[in-house]
Amino acid sequence: MEMLLRLEQAWQLSLDRVSACGVERVPLGASQGRVLAEHVVAKSPLPPFDRSALDGYAVRAADLVGTTAERPIELQVVEEVPAGTVATHAVASGQAVRIMTGAPIPSGADAIVRKEAAEEVDGTVRILLEVPRGEAISRQGEDAPAGAELLRAGRQIGAAEIALLATEGAETVLVYRRPRVGILVSGREVRPLADRLLPGQIRDSNGPMIAAMVRDMGAEPMLYGQVGDELAEIVPLLNKAVAECDLVLTTGGVSVGDHDLMREAFVQAGGRLLFWKVLMRPGTPVAFAEIEQTPVYGLSGNPAAAFINYALLVQPLLRKLAGWEHVLHRPVKAYLECETTSGVIGMDRFLRAQLVSQEGRLVARVGKGQKAAILTSLAGIQGLVRIPARSEMRSGELVEVYLLREGAIGR
Ligand SMILES: Nc1nc2c(c(=O)[nH]1)N[C@H]1C(S)=C(S)[C@@H](COP(=O)(O)OP(=O)(O)OC[C@H]3O[C@@H](n4cnc5c(N)ncnc54)[C@H](O)[C@@H]3O)O[C@H]1N2
Ligand code: MOO
């Protein structure tokens, strides 16, 4: 069975099969990197009261009309309000209150004069300039009025989101459960890190690489080890993994070789194959199945093909499982800078690219080493340039770049 799909079809088919994992409540301090599962609305205005934006003097603006350094005005200082306290006096005409940044505006006052424009001696302050009403006052609710939406569900929680939640007094936060992602590495030649290699063997790099990519998205990798190319070995592990995980990823054995058994293993494990092969290079041989309702991606064994399969196919699916509001990639445009040219092919090509800013322009720098088995050229890249099927790549052209980290750019 060969079911060649365009990338867009693969997204649609796979995304239609999944929905977000359940939710749980976690302490605010443990919410970083998690995905918010509730809309957060301001319970009270932010800031909660009119407050001073400067260290200086709370005054009545009308007292200061016509004031200059040459024609200063003197006001009587009736009180001091540090932040965290409330003035006990109202400010009457001819009076001022010494005030610190963040302190509530005393009643009667309607402007703040910065300390640098005032000279205080023995309870009298000489003001050296005129200020308009409202000067240096942060109004109650100017950041957000009561009832305003502060955060939308489906957003990954970072430092700014934590600040807003803390401001709201959220000791705990409702977040989506971290998807558990099973990883099963296949290939008789592929050995775990600790093994001494025999001739013909290599170390497993896909397992640790995919686990890192999963962790990078805030999901939880679960390692099911390395298996040879034997169905009797693969099938029971697949069954265990689908029972325990929200998504299972395998690598290797999805091409046409005599030992490429992964698709057969999916079926023997009770699964239904939804597609095999996507019109992308590297990473054409990739299979998607459902085993007992758990989505399973059989990624290429070639390291860069597995990386690119993950970046383009698994990431959107995992974002949906993790509860993200926006799951599809949104490519950016950059000017291509490439060292090599390569032939026109009948499928979309994805090139590893460093994104750099040159004279204010975003440039996608594509180096040599774009083959599926080349690992070194993956290090230090930020995106994948898409060269559409049957088109050539030429330096200087504007191309689409798929970012490895979605969320770095807003929607
Ligand atoms: N006759 C054909 N042969 C191949 C085709 C084809 O269409 N016709 N497609 C080629 C393409 S394109 C790719 S990509 C690979 C994909 O092969 P598999 O996904 O079945 O992967 P394997 O054969 O198991 O391994 C490929 C390669 O990667 C190395 N590998 C595997 N696992 C790991 C790992 N965990 N860590 C590091 N390296 C790994 C493995 O040793 C092989 O060298 O098929 C082509 N063949
Ligand atoms: O899919 Mo293979 O990675 O095209 O070379």
From TrEMBL:
* EC nos: 2.10.1.1
Kindly tell me the pathway this chain contributes to: Cofactor biosynthesis; molybdopterin biosynthesis
The answer to whether the entry has keyword Flavoprotein is: no
Matches recorded under InterPro entries: MoaB/Mog-like_dom_sf, MoaB/Mog_dom, MoeA-like, MoeA_C_domain_IV, MoeA_C_domain_IV_sf, MoeA_linker/N, MoeA_linker/N_sf
Keywords from the UniProt entry: Magnesium, Metal-binding, Molybdenum, Molybdenum cofactor biosynthesis, Transferase
Q: Give me the reactions it catalyses.
A: adenylyl-molybdopterin + molybdate = Mo-molybdopterin + AMP + H(+)
State the needed cofactors, names only: Mg(2+)
MoaB/Mog domain: which residues? 182-320
Q: What class of enzyme is it?
A: transferase
Q: Name one Pfam family in it.
A: MoCF_biosynth
- Belongs to which family? Belongs to the MoeA family.
Protein purpose: Catalyzes the insertion of molybdate into adenylated molybdopterin with the concomitant release of AMP.
In its UniProt entry, what is this protein called? Answer: Molybdopterin molybdenumtransferase
The root-end lineage is: Bacteria, Bacillati, Bacillota, Bacilli, Bacillales
Which gene does this sequence derive from?
glp
